[in-house]
Amino acid sequence: GMGRGEALRETQLEMIREGERYSHPYYWASFILAGDWRPLE
């Protein structure tokens, strides 16, 4: 599968592209990854 960092990035980009409601960084910029970034198995 997709790595956790890549999945988070794709989700953030999708929120930006999908429309005005959640495109502002207020809704998505606070999410960060901590710890092991490898894909889940």
Residues in β-strands, percent: under 5%
Rg of Cα set: 11 Å
Structural class given helices, strands, pairing?
mainly alpha
Query: Termini distance?
Result: 8 Å
* Number of separate helices: 2
Shape verdict: elongated
Poorly predicted regions are none
| Quaternary structure state of the chains depicted | single chain
Number of strands: 0
**In sequence order, what are the helices and strands, one letter per element?**
HH
Average predicted local confidence, pLDDT? 84
Largest sheet: none
Overall tally of domains: 1
Instruction: Please give the share of residues in helix.
Output: 40-55%
Provide structural commentary:
- The protein is 46% helix and 0% strand.
- It has one domain (1-35).
- It is mostly helical and 41 residues long.
- The mean pLDDT is 84.
- It has helices at residues 4-18, 25-28.
- It is built from 2 helices and no strands.
